[in-house]
Amino acid sequence: MNKGELVDEVAKKTSLTKKQIDAVISATVDTIMDAVAEEDKVTLVGFGSFESRDRKAREGRNPKTGEKMEIKATKVPAFSAGKLFKEKVAPPSE
Questions:
Q1: Where are the alpha helices (DSSP H) in 1-94?
Q2: Could you count the other beta carbons within 10 Å of the beta carbon of residue 35?
Q3: What are the φ/ψ torsions at residue 73 (nearest 5 degrees)?
Q4: Of the N and C termini of the chain, which has fewer Cβ atoms inside 10 Å?
Q5: Helices 18-37 and 3-13: crossing angle, nearest 10°?
Q6: In sequence order, what are the residues at sequence separation of 6 or more whose Cβ sits closer than 8 angstroms to the Cβ of residue 21?
Q7: In 3D, which of 11, 30, 34 has the Cα closest to residue 21?
Q8: pLDDT 10s per residue in the chain (94 long)?
Q9: What is the DSSP letter of 20?
Q10: Which residues does UniProt assign to the signal peptide (predicted)?
Q11: Predicted pLDDT at 42
Q12: CB 40 within 8 A of CB 75
């Protein structure tokens, strides 16, 4: 599902226009990205959490030459699914 399809699905479930929904989704995504970039954690209860994680420096290989190279430490965005989301994707078996 792409952003346009998401807007369409949300429009079916609300009384908002597609233009309004697109603006809300864009603002939400921008706000989450800004917060994570500032090392804040964003938690949407039941859905999941967005945060910045540190990735340590490590040794890698150049895929073309096979030569060893140092990969620098960096920060990466991360998402952890919440309990309700996990259960929706993979319902617990009984």
A1: 3-13, 18-37, 83-89
A2: 15
A3: -65, 150
A4: C
A5: 120
A6: 7, 10, 11, 14
A7: 11
A8: 999 999 999 999 999 999 999 999 999 999 999 999 999 999 999 999 999 999 999 999 999 999 999 999 999 999 999 999 999 999 987 6
A9: H
A10: none
A11: 98
A12: no
- Degrees to nearest 5, angle at CA 45 with 24 and 25: 10
Work out the number of other CB atoms within 10 angstroms of the CB of residue 47.
Answer: 14
The confidence score (pLDDT) of residue 34 equals 98
* pLDDT score at 3: 96
Give the pairing type, strands 58-61 and 68-71: antiparallel
As beta bridge partners, residue 58 has 71
- Asked if 75 contacts 38 with a C-beta cutoff of 8 angstroms, the reply is no
- Which residue has tokens 């369409």? 8
Q: How far is CA 59 from the centre of its chain?
A: 27
